[in-house]
Specification:
- The protein has 6 helices and 7 strands, in the order αβαβααββββααβ.
- By secondary structure, the chain is of the alpha/beta class.
């Protein structure tokens, strides 16, 4: 199924999902390079009154990661502000307007207050790796979702995409392979091995 067809299928399911609170919260989960960011935008385009909130905005700053010895593992579950994400999602259930951070990959940092969910938004599509992660802190998010979908992509395809991504950012083949094999793929395996059941499973996008 093409991404556009997949997005339409998800949007149909999303639109039929009931609201728990003020807004419908949707989790779109997948490992790095699974295509979730692109798919989230397509789903939003097919879901009236919706917007996308990327989980990546909740990355901890590099200075904090360096102080904790985690900079080389940036993108692992422990390198995110899980509590900040949780409270932002709770606010989306009750408040008219909510600001959120957006991760700027070219700068490798999050920009505070760069995104906004306004009063007219009825559905927020949250995309990220660990939204259904079965671990303390992350597990608390699972009760907030009105609908969830997981992307299932084979590891060899993820590696090809990750290598291409880092090459696009100017990394040499050697450095791209190091970042992919030492950090991105371990994170991908964590997602694949510890994601709780979702309402919808999407294979091989």
């Amino acid at each position: 199924m093409r991404p556009e067809e997949t997005a339409c299928a998800i949007a149909t399911r999303v639109s039929a999902a009931p609201f728990q609170a003020k807004r419908r919260l949707v989790a779109l989960v997948g490992p790095p390079a699974s295509g979730k960011s692109t798919l989230a935008e397509l789903v939003a385009a097919n879901t009236p009154g919706s917007c996308v909130l990327p989980m990546d905005g909740f990355h901890l700053d590099d200075r904090i990661l360096e102080a904790r010895g985690l900079l080389a593992r940036k993108g692992a579950p422990e390198t995110f502000d899980t509590g900040g994400l949780f409270h932002t999602l709770r606010r989306l259930q009750t408040e008219e307007e909510v600001f959120f951070p957006i991760f700027e990959r070219s700068q490798e940092q999050s920009i505070a207050g760069a995104g906004v969910v306004g009063p007219s938004t009825q559905t927020v599509i949250v995309e990220g790796n660990y939204l259904l992660f079965d671990a303390p802190g992350w597990r608390a998010l699972s009760d907030l979702w009105d609908f969830s979908a997981v992307l299932n992509v084979p590891e060899h395809i993820l590696r090809e995409r990750l290598m291409a991504r880092w090459a696009d950012y100017g990394y040499s083949a050697e450095d791209a392979a190091k970042k992919t094999d030492m950090n991105d793929l371990p994170n991908a395996r964590a997602v694949i091995g510890n994601t709780m059941p979702a309402d919808m499973l999407i294979d091989n996008m």
